[in-house]
Design brief:
single chain, about 90 residues, YaeB-like fold, 5-stranded mixed β-sheet, 2 helices, 5 strands, globular
């Protein structure tokens, strides 16, 4: 399988930087980097009514889009599970 390019929106970078615990931030970043290898890992779900996917990392959710023709994964939003879908 080809490796996907990873693009993180500036607002998602701010979301990651806002995660209070360094350990949680590191896990989220590791999870995002793995999306370049496999954009649809086990546990990922397509969000109904949207062209976005989500993957869980602890209490946090990573929302992203996949463009298979361009081999691109774009992280749109990262946040706590209670806030991320708003």
């Amino acid at each position: 399988m080809a490796r996907y390019r990873l693009l993180i929106k500036p607002s998602a970078v701010k979301d990651i930087e806002a995660i209070p615990l360094k350990r949680d931030r590191q896990r989220v970043v590791e999870r995002i980097s793995k999306l370049a290898e496999d954009p649809r890992p086990s546990g990922s779900e397509k969000i109904s009514g949207q062209d976005k996917y989500r993957v869980r990392q602890g209490r946090y959710r990573i929302l992203y889009t996949i463009e298979d023709q361009d081999l691109l994964v774009q992280v749109v939003k990262v946040g706590h599970r209670k806030d991320v879908y708003r």
